[in-house]
Amino acid sequence: xxxxxxxxxxxxxxxxxxxxxxxxxxxxxxxxxxxxxxxxxxxxxxxxxxxxxxxxxxxxxxxxxxxxxxxxxxxxxxxxxxxxxxxxxxxxxxxxxxxxxxxxxxxxxxxxxxxxxxxxxxxxxxxxxxxxxxxxxxxxxxxxxxxxxxxxxxxxxxxxxxxxxxxxxxxxxxxxxxxxxxxxxxxxxxxxxxxxxxxxxxxxxxxxxxxxxxxxxxxxxxxxxxxxxxxxxxxxxxxxxxxxxxxxxxxxxxxxxxxxxxxxxxxxxxxxxxxxxxxxxxxxxxxxxxxxxxxxxxxxxxxxxxxxxxxxxxxxxxxxxxxxxxxxxxxxxxxxxxxxxxxxxxxxxxxxxxxxxxxxxxxxxxxxxxxxxxxxxxxxxxxxxxxxxxxxxxxxxxxxxxxxxxxxxxxxxxxxxxxxxxxxxxxxxxxxxxxxxxxxxxxxxxxxxxxxxxxx
Length: 456
Fold this sequence. Notes:
This protein is mainly alpha-helical. It has four domains: 17-88, no CATH class; 106-111 and 116-207, no CATH class; 220-324, no CATH class; 327-332 and 344-456. Helix content is 60%, strand content 4%. The chain has helices spanning 17-33, 40-59, 72-76, 81-88, 105-108, 121-129, 134-148, 155-171, 179-190, 195-207, 222-233, 252-266, 296-303, 310-324, 328-340, 347-360, 364-378, 380-384, 389-409, 415-443, 447-451; strands spanning 243-248, 272-275, 285-290. It has a three-stranded antiparallel beta sheet, with helices on one face. It is extended, with a radius of gyration of 31 Å. The N and C termini lie far apart (74 Å). Residues 1-5 and 443-456 have low confidence and may be disordered.
């Protein structure tokens, strides 16, 4: 919200009046409720006052404070420097690191834990950058967007929309049209009263997808620094242009690249998309399509809550997902992803969750869906050097339960259910063959005997 300092003239509204009214209301609440049952707020506010004193000492009294309205009375309270320092005395000291990360308009519009959020960052960004005639420039932007979507919008529409916005502002007692007036004008003139194209305007312009920038000299979060080190050591430079990368997992460098990309996928950082390898059906080749979007930097910063290195963060995220995932097939898929990412330390938590869900799930269809991913996981040990013995017992037990439950599960099925069950049977048939090979190679016994499928 903007405004100029000084006493407003006749007929002018004080732009700071809403802030004063809100501060007065918060003052009344604080007089009655004190810290509101949160004594730690008093410590936080003491630290705020210390920083405010330092800012005033450096820049003078022209200082703006961005904070929750609840804290305004405490920041205006006259306290001594000694009293504020006394509140902070004895607090444990923790080593922390700070950084700036590029943020997006869409994330600015997203409400945080206590309801904060800017509903229209694109609109305010426009007001900040428009050198003059902000309403005319805004409605011209809207017209350009609608034309790109093949809607018929002419210069006459823009002129009429500006006139209507000015008229609405005058009727509502406002000196200039705001977002409400321009939105009403766009709906009436350019969208013919429809909210469907108006929703597009809100999504693309009122909110928008603008990504901010930070200087190269800005400190990075520990996870970002670790990712940068691995990118340099693996010679895997992030590029905006999409490219295809073929990996031979028998080599150390390519195996490291594969682990890094899979770990990032576990963290929700989609730098690469795994595709099918051309000319090879073995497990020692992977084909990735890589493209580094600027917004991935934001996701790296967000993923920093899971750990300070890529490996530690991916492990923590996998363990949390194992605890939260409900479907058996999802847990087996998670186990497969952990093996692909080279995270053996995460497997115990995943295996516990897998065993718990497998013991409680009696649906043969669910068990059959879970088996293929589990069996595929057993095959990765040869190429990736991963110990998969922990999966063997669970996979064998799961297969036995499918064998026992399959005959009764195949009775009294309609055509749709029969078609679905046929898919499960085919997948289990293929998986059992692979399971026999995996267990047989691990124990040195006959594959058919190892899998228990000799008479199947």
